[in-house]
């Protein structure tokens, strides 16, 4: 069996707010294994982003256990165990695209030639070759997000945390990036934790789909995908795909509140 990359046991996180406590995560138990592609899906406010942020040591658990590569999130952060792609592109406006991508590589002291190679590969992967010298504000929102994905890819961490990275992109670009991400994942044996609101995206990409529900944020279903590793886009029309999508939809419906 593959090693555990993220392991959560009875994990709880409660935010204290002026309106009282918000139970963002309640008794979450989950094991992400090396090489897994795990999608987190659920309605707004069910704690998907919070879970990623706990892994990345950007939030502290209230109780329970969480390890990342067998370490505390704090030690994992110091060991630079992961790359993080945020919901909104977080690029420095005073740096060109290539300099933005270079930043983590500079911090990690990659040799200049290696930096250049990685930047070129990452830009190619997200279809941004030729935009190296542009500044973020010269690109569309979608292109900026692709650049921030390139930054997380260039930095060669085994674990990629992706918070709705393709949510703002048009569907054709999104399809392309989904395919490219799968290829990259297959080639590199990375472990990916991926937040999405899209059922087809979750089913297409994942080896494991974690369905969550809010108030309090909890895991209501964990689906191990039966789809083959090789996934042309056409697989989305197959009976097997639709069966898994149906189960995800049922899980979402069961945990959904219509009272908002
Ligand atoms: N810093 C914070 N302080 C207080 N409450 C917070 C904070 N961050 C998130 N929350 C609350 O915790 C709950 C979970 O939020 P979270 O962002 O993790 O959900 P999500 O599933 O990622 O939502 P979305 O799909 O909208 O991004 C929500 O009720 C949210 O309002």
TrEMBL record:
Keyword ATP-binding found: yes
Keywords annotated in UniProt: ATP-binding, Nucleotide-binding, Transport
Molecular function GO terms recorded: ATP binding; ATP hydrolysis activity
UniProt-listed InterPro entries: AAA+_ATPase, ABC_transporter-like_ATP-bd, ABC_transporter-like_CS, ABC_transporter_ATP-bind, P-loop_NTPase
Domain ABC transporter: 6-239
Signal peptide: none
SMART domains: AAA
Superkingdom of origin organism: Bacteria
Pfam family, one: ABC_tran
UniProt cross-references to SUPFAM superfamilies, sorted A to Z: P-loop containing nucleoside triphosphate hydrolases (SSF52540)
Entry's family note: Belongs to the ABC transporter superfamily.
Protein name per the record: NitT/TauT family transport system ATP-binding protein
Native organism taxonomy: Bacteria, Pseudomonadati, Pseudomonadota, Alphaproteobacteria, Hyphomicrobiales
């Amino acid at each position: 069996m593959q090693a555990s990359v993220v392991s959560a046991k009875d994990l709880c996180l409660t935010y204290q707010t002026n309106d009282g406590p918000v139970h963002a995560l309640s008794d979450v138990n989950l094991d992400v294994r090396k090489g897994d592609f795990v999608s987190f899906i659920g309605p707004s406010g069910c704690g998907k982003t919070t879970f990623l942020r706990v892994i990345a040591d950007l939030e502290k658990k209230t109780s329970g256990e969480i390890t990342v590569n067998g370490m505390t999130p704090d030690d994992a952060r110091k060991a630079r165990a992961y790359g993080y792609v945020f919901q909104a592109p977080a690029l420095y406006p005073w740096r060109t695209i290539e300099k933005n991508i270079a930043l983590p590589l500079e911090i990690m002291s990659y040799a200049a030639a290696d930096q250049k190679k990685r930047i070129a590969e990452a830009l190619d992967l997200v279809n941004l070759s030729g935009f190296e010298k542009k500044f973020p504000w010269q690109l569309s929102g979608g292109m900026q997000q692709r650049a921030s994905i390139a930054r997380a890819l260039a930095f060669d961490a085994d674990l990629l945390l992706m918070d709705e990275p393709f949510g703002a992109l048009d569907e054709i670009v999104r399809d392309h990036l989904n395919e490219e991400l799968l290829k990259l994942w297959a080639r590199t044996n990375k472990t990916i934790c991926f937040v999405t609101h899209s059922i087809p995206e979750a089913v297409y990409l994942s080896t494991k789909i974690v369905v969550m529900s809010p108030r309090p944020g909890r895991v209501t279903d964990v689906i191990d995908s039966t789809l083959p590793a090789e996934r042309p886009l056409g697989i989305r029309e197959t009976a097997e795909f639709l069966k898994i999508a149906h189960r995800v939809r049922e899980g979402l419906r069961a945990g959904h509140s219509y009272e908002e």
